[in-house]
Design brief:
This protein has two domains: about 170 residues, Rossmann fold (3-Layer(aba) Sandwich); about 110 residues, K homology (KH) domain (GMP Synthetase, Chain A, domain 3). About 35% of the residues lie in helices and about 25% in strands. It is built from nine helices and nine strands. Helix 4 links the parallel strand 5 and strand 6. It is globular. It binds guanosine-5'-triphosphate and magnesium ion. Guanosine-5'-triphosphate binds next to helix 1.
């Protein structure tokens, strides 16, 4: 029997959803940050086995805020929960459940879909804390399976989660060709790699006002490298100055880290040309948000 299905990965920000997607797929397709709200749109990853195909949908962390950018991000979570076969609800050592997460748990229940609770980051928890979190979640929703893992410390975390998913998935068709691991474009993944380096190198709130778009990407045969030109879009002049840094030091470091990772991703040499542009109030304007966070628009 061939099994397949769409698995929506949902949870509060920073619980490890994107870490899980990358672990399951075996390649880095989603960015990871110690800062919350790293993921801004849903990212699909496809895992093929001999008798199965699983399409994982990583989503932005569930978070209540009236800010326009957050509202657009929420739409991606809603979209992922429009049509799915199994929900993988993830939490971490904080075990946070708030009203919005409860809304989504209710939605899963109402759709009568199967679900798995993954309690992640057990490396940071005592047994008692794990039990407390388990109780908190099971008193609010029914899960078919509950798993306790540390994605970064348990060598068998991937196998545990994958086996639980395969148990619950039903017979289904192959939706994608075998050689596709993601439906995201190269340009999107490259822009995200750059944004990840900004998130992890630039202090405080600034990364929340930053978007990255890849404007040009071409192979230069004579030099045997990819020329990639990307814009780092900020809202204010002060943010531009901070990202550039004294004598351009910070942007150089961001560029170096991003280039190395893009080279590993494309498996070629890369010349990365970064430009910081100011677009006032872009995080308040829906058409601009969509254009900047999702190359489909
Ligand atoms: N200690 C510990 N940290 C972990 C574990 N799994 C993931 N992390 C870290 O948790 C942070 C958040 O991980 P992400 O995968 O970006 O979390 P996310 O849920 O996708 O976050 P958003 O995209 O913001 O919603 C990163 O710094 C990860 O390295 C774990 O098992 N233990
Ligand atoms: Mg994420």
């Amino acid at each position: 029997m061939f099994k397949s299905g769409f698995v929506a990965i949902i949870g509060k920000p920073n619980v490890g959803k994107s870490t899980l997607l990358n672990l399951l797929i075996g390649e880095k397709i989603a960015i990871v940050s110690h800062k919350p709200q790293a993921t801004r749109k849903s990212v699909k990853g496809i895992l093929n086995g001999e008798n199965y195909q699983i399409i994982f949908v990583d989503t932005p962390g569930i978070h209540e805020s009236q800010k326009k950018l957050n509202q657009v991000m929420r739409k991606y979570i809603d979209e992922a929960l429009e049509d799915f076969d199994l929900a993988l609800v993830m939490t971490d050592n904080h075990g946070e459940i708030d009203e919005v997460l409860e809304e989504y748990l209710a939605k899963i229940k109402q759709k009568n879909k199967k679900s798995i609770l993954v309690i992640n980051k057990t490396d940071l928890m005592t047994k008692e804390q794990i039990e407390e979190i388990k109780e908190k979640f099971t008193s609010r929703a029914n899960f078919n399976v509950i798993l306790e893992v540390s994605l970064i410390k348990d060598p068998d975390a991937k196998e545990k989660i994958l086996n639980a998913i395969l148990e619950l998935l039903e017979e289904g068709p192959k939706y994608f060709e075998d050689d596709i691991i993601s439906t995201e474009t190269e340009r999107f993944i490259i822009a995200e790699i750059i944004r990840e380096k900004i998130m992890n190198n630039v202090a405080k709130e600034i990364p929340y006002h930053v978007a990255v778009t890849v404007e040009e990407m071409k192979y230069r045969e004579e030099k045997d490298l990819y020329y990639i030109r990307a814009n780092i879009i900020v809202e204010r002049r002060a943010h531009k100055m901070i990202i550039i840094g004294e004598n351009g030091r910070l942007i150089k470091e961001i560029g170096k880290q991003a280039r190395e990772e893009i080279e590993a991703f494309l498996k070629t040499k890369v010349y990365l040309d970064l430009w910081v542009k100011i677009k006032e109030h872009w995080t308040k304007k829906e058409p601009l948000i969509k254009e900047y966070i999702d190359p489909r628009f």
